[in-house]
# Entry
Amino acid sequence: MTEPILDFVDCADAGGGHRMAYWQWGDPRAEHVVLCVHGLTRQGRDFDALAQVLLEKASRPVRIVCPDVVGRGRSDWLPEPLHYQFPQYVADMMALLAHLHARAPLTQFDHVGTSMGGLIGIFLAAQPTLAPVPVRRLVLNDVGPAVEFDAIARISGYVGQGGVYATVDEAAQMLLAISAGFGPHSREQWQALTVPMLVPARERSADGRQRLDMAAERVDVASGPYRLHYDPALSVGLRALTREQALQGEAVVWAAYDAVKAPTLLLRGADSDLLSRTTAQAMTQRGPRASLVEFAGVGHAPTLVDPAQSSVVASFLFER
# Structure
């Protein structure tokens, strides 16, 4: 496969429900599902390169499923910004798993999560009776229970601040400026990571919050203007977060991490400002006692585009 299939699942929420998009690679009837969940302001196409490597390396049929978390990509936006929280995200992933299982029964479920997606994975993996099947193997990409508050402040400085970009190259340069931690990429690799981050720019509604039928939107790289795909209101809860609240949340995530039984691989950018080396080492000594792999010359977060990164994930997921 050179392109994934776009599909949708209906999810419940306090506002009456929303639709979450997901991108699927591989055999739609495969019993083995690898769920790949992106970071805070990203979307499911971030995993295109990884998905293709996993399909090449798998010895048996596998479904690679990459959702656009609500408020991102082709998924709906929530009417209440403060509802962009982990309980909603985890509930949406459980709805997605039930949806996938109803279409073709699954017997193995692995989770790969970058940053926010990794925290979602911890909460899923902490449930030993997760339906339809518990997490078999867990990959955490540059995230752990203790998230450095200064990194949160850095990220909150740009979330929701995107403007309108005349060309894809202009948008790519802006994203490159705020994504130095992703590490080196070729121009072609960075373009591939950039294009799915864009949607055609439109006039905003009276309340300033644009809502589109994202299923119908497709970026034409030959013409602009563009804006970033995600709901700018994602910034509301992030900017309201205090250091004290972050510490309280840390305790909750540590408790969930300690409950994880699945073999766990922890990836860390050696220059990460979000996952400290101290926290990473602690994660190798408690809970599932994660295996730690660090990537030199990368901060927050490895994109898993580099074969040296994606091969580590494939080996972990498919090793006997």
User: Anything to note?
Assistant: The longest strand covers residues 18-26. Strands lie at 5-11, 18-26, 32-37, 63-67, 108-114, 137-141, 198-200, 226-228, 264-269, 291-295. Residues 203-217 have pLDDT under 50 and may be disordered. The first helix runs from residue 48 to 57.
